[in-house]
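Provenance

Sequences were taken from public entries as deposited. Structures were produced by running a predictor on each sequence independently, with no templates supplied. The record for TspO/MBR-related protein from Hygrophoropsis aurantiaca is shown for reference.
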Amino acid sequence: MLPPLLLAIPRNSITAVGLPIALGLFSGHNTKNVVRNHWYKSLRFPPARPPGWVFPIVWPVLYAGMGCASHIAVKALDGAETESTRSGLSLALTLYYSQLALNCLWSPLFFGSKKIGWALVDSTALLVTTFYMTSLMHKCTGGDTTYLLLPYCAWLSYATYLNGGIWFMNRARVD
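Predicted structure for TspO/MBR-related protein:
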């Protein structure tokens, strides 16, 4: 069972959306400086890499979607009539906070520590956790959270491909 504070945050739609956006901004605060330096510019990248301006647009939208999904999930938990639904939603919300922590860890690993391999491990764990969370929330909310989380799942799949490609193409010089 989650601590009461972690259930209280998504009960309010403002804090539900605000928390992932704030954490995302905090974890990525140094990214802008790193992508301008020699280390990042010297990396080899896989095909289909988007231009840099895409990331600061996409991520806040995805963070807002995951925050809205957490709000819907905790409201469904509050009104759950069966133990099975309560249990599924409790696990889904635990996974929500787990994926949020993994998400916040990625930028410091990749951009801060320049540990591309460890960032790939994190990204893979994030992807698996998020898909499982999305599946549980879908089942327990009657699909109400699915459209909010599917773009996030798709983007994480793409981001993991990029991270894997960067690691593979630069593996001789990185962690």
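Residues 114 and 174 are 8 Å apart (CA to CA).
The chain has a mean pLDDT of 95.
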